[in-house]
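Example protein as discussed:

>
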Amino acid sequence: MRSRLLTAFLVYLFAALGVFLIVAPWTPLWEMSTAGYLPTALGPCLRSGFARGLVTGLGALNLMAAWSEARGLLWPTSPDES
């Protein structure tokens, strides 16, 4: 069983990363990044809506992981139920 402090840290980490991944692709930060202007085939791919949606989906998965960890922190189960 993990400590409550480690679980709280994981909730914070997953939530912060999830919010960043959801918001970042839709800000000027994404457009100004140098990776999007690579002279390879990867550059236009990173500027496409598909890549933005993919990163946003990863952010949503991180938020779901944060919620999953937070449920265990907020509503602990007894050892008999595991």
